[in-house]
Request: fold
Amino acid sequence: MKLLESLKAQLSKPNSTKSDRRSFLQIVGTGGVLASLAGFFYQSFRSLLPNVLYEAPQKFKIGLPSQLADGVTFLEDRRLYVFKEAKSYYAISGACTHLGCTVKYTKLNSPKQVEIGNEKKNITFEFHCPCHGSKFYADGTNYAGPAPSPLHWYKLEIAPDDGQLVVNLGEEVEQNFRLTV
Ligand code: FES
Reply:
């Protein structure tokens, strides 16, 4: 403000002389230098602070096992399919291993016998990716399209404090993982 007032005062003088113009240029120059210094110090200070990426926690509760519906539950915000079969539970990622689109749980019209590894299995659903057509068997094994690997499985556990189901996205497990409660 003081700088502006001083500038106004200089300009409003009826008989501007050479020295007035010089002091005007001095003020403008000083202002520029001060602005550059302020920018420099701000950037220096900012570089000392880490760039923190705020992500959702890897471990989270999804309620009591008894509250989960039989069959499949899709946790949309986590892109995770959680299965409850009798008293066992497991979780399969809904993120396609090609470029990360969300795969769709697709019920088959009739059970299909497939060979996974050396085992023959009857499956009643699959996962299909809407982006480039990758397909995965019920256990997440990729069998068609560009997806290079199976869907990820994540660990489930029981919270010791309140008995809720806990998903741990930080820990992958094998396709035969089952949490039995
Ligand atoms: S992202 Fe799923 S097939 Fe490409």
